[in-house]
């Protein structure tokens, strides 16, 4: 028996020479800055996506399970907000688990568009979901949507519901988040909307533990970045030289994540002129991620400034996490 079909658009192709050259350039520029940095999108090779899945199961990492509990508690209101006959556009779908749980709970779109940078991982997960729910039209898009959001031309404009759970919005700094949200508002009409999960400001100890768990899974997720960079850039980072550092910066309301050199070392990678070098002193850090936390009022204001109105919010009893629904104000 043939399995039900999903449509795939692979806009991002890590292996196309042109895109690969752009990604290598981006990595090299980041590594050569005074404060070296690697963009968080490089976390998500196949192993990185699996490690992130494992993070979501950790006792310390409360966002995923708190968000799931909000969905269960407020399902009727969420269903009512989304309405019927809509297209769910899942930004950073990962293993499609969150959308799948919504569908199995009876919140059913007529069309599901799964977008992710981890193309292979998304394709496998989407094909599995299609086998479970063959009646829903499913489209997969391999895309770095943090830069551009190119949707298929034949995707109807009406009732586009953007789905951005998990507080991934926190991985942008607030001005970039506003810009990104504005792009979403521009790609829907007044019948559309945005369902978005946001991690809320809370006690420092809880936040620190969520990003530096006792088992070391977040450390592995962070250090795996260097494996991915070695593969992409032909670099020679020795992973055992680097340790995970993560802490809450209360002034900027964000977790900051770094890789810290355990000793003085040099990393190198080839370029047209030979080899590029970056020397690191012992204790020097590579910035790998920020994860911004918001107050309910702060995120409401951000949505409004990005062109959204009719804003609703649901939260958990401890007010650790919030789910917002908003419509483009047109
Ligand atoms: C994907 N993103 C929302 C996660 C977060 O919480 O910022 C990524 C993560 N980094 C470390 N743990 C989880």
Strand order of the largest sheet: 1-4-3-2-5-6-13-12
Fraction of helical residues: 25-40%
Strand-residue fraction?
Answer: 25-35%
Uncertain stretches of 5 or more adjacent residues: none
Q: Tally the beta strands.
A: 13
- The end-to-end distance, rounded to whole angstroms, is 47 Å
Largest sheet: 8 strands, mixed
Number of helices: 10
Q: Specify the structural class.
A: alpha/beta
Radius of gyration in whole Å, from Cα? Answer: 20 Å
Which ligands accompany this protein?
A: N,N-dimethyl-L-histidine
Mean pLDDT, nearest integer?
A: 95
> What would you call the shape?
globular
Instruction: List the helices and strands in order.
Output: EHHHHEHEHEEHEHHEEEEEHEE
Short description:
Helix content is 35%, strand content 26%.
Top keywords for this entry?
alpha/beta, 13 strands, 3-stranded antiparallel beta sheet, 8-stranded mixed beta sheet, 35% helix, globular, binds N,N-dimethyl-L-histidine, 330 residues
């Amino acid at each position: 028996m043939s399995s039900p079909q999903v449509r795939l658009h692979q806009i991002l192709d890590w292996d196309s020479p042109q895109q690969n050259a752009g990604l290598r350039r981006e990595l090299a520029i980041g590594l050569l800055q005074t404060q070296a940095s690697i963009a968080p999108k490089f976390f998500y090779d196949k192993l990185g996506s699996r490690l992130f899945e494992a993070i979501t199961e950790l006792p310390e990492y409360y966002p995923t399970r708190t968000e799931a509990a909000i969905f269960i508690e407020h399902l009727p209101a969420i269903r009512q907000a989304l309405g019927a006959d809509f297209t769910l556009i899942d930004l950073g779908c990962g293993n499609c688990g969150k959308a799948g749980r919504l569908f199995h709970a009876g919140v059913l779109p007529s069309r599901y568009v799964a977008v992710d940078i981890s193309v292979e991982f998304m394709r496998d997960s989407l094909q599995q979901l299609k086998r479970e729910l063959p009646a829903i039209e499913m489209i997969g898009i391999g895309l770095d949507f943090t830069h551009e959001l190119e949707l298929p031309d034949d995707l109807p404009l009406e009732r586009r519901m953007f789905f951005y759970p998990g507080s991934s919005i926190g991985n942008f700094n607030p001005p970039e988040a506003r810009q990104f949200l504005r792009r979403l508002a521009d790609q829907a009409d007044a019948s559309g909307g945005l369902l978005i999960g946001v991690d809320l400001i809370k006690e420092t100890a809880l936040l620190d533990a969520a990003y530096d768990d006792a088992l070391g899974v977040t450390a592995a997720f962070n250090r795996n970045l260097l494996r991915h960079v070695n593969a992409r850039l032909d670099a020679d980072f020795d992973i055992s030289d680097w340790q995970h550092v993560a802490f809450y910066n209360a002034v900027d309301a964000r977790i900051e994540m770094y890789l810290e050199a355990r000793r003085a070392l040099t990393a190198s990678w080839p370029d047209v002129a030979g080899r590029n070098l970056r020397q690191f002193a012992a204790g020097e850090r590579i910035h790998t991620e920020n994860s911004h936390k918001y107050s309910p009022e702060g995120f409401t204001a951000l949505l409004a400034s990005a062109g959204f109105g009719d804003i609703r919010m649901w939260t958990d009893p401890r007010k650790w996490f919030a789910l917002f629904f908003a419509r483009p104000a047109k």
